[in-house]
Write a structure and sequence with these properties.
Helix content: 10-25%
Structural class: alpha+beta
Radius of gyration: 16 Å
Order of helices and strands: HEEEHEEHEE
Largest sheet: 5 strands, antiparallel
Length: about 150
């Protein structure tokens, strides 16, 4: 069980750096700005806990990466949206995902919602989570970091 949770948390963290929170930043805003409400109704925000790893990630048991629709990539559509997950406290399942701030592209918003509704949390931990999802194109091949060689 511990191995499974460790894997799920590692998976969640890997996804967070790719699509959820993304790699780009908007002027003056951190891509890590999230907020969460625990089972007792207490709210937590990024500003209270400005760590690179969000407070709630330890309770993620399943994280589904959003698919970047081919048609949107082809058109070079990018964007950061903010999404609210309503979580069933007893089961840890996401009951509903709503768009707080659109990516400006319906297909990107739907892709994010479709992925986030598949997320799961440890039961009796969180009841709500708001987080950004960033759809960003990779840099052109010639501009990629040389440290990967």
């Amino acid at each position: 069980m511990l191995t499974r949770l460790g894997f799920a948390t590692s998976l969640a963290l890997a996804l967070l750096t790719v699509s959820v929170f993304g790699q780009g930043q908007t002027a003056g805003k951190s891509p890590y700005e999230w907020s969460a409400v625990d089972k007792s109704g207490k709210q937590f925000t990024y500003r209270q806990f400005p760590q690179p790893v969000p407070l709630w990630t330890k309770d993620v048991t399943k994280a589904v990466k959003p698919e970047y629709p081919y048609e949107e990539r082809k058109r070079k559509h990018t964007g950061i949206g903010m999404f609210r997950l309503e979580i069933d406290v007893e089961t840890g399942k996401v009951r509903r995902v709503t768009v707080i701030k659109s990516t400006k592209y319906n297909r990107l918003d739907e892709a994010a919602k479709n992925a986030l509704v598949g997320w799961r949390f440890r039961p009796n931990t969180w009841k709500e989570l708001s987080l950004p999802v960033d759809f960003a194109l990779p840099p052109p091949v010639g501009l990629r970091s040389r440290s990967a060689h």
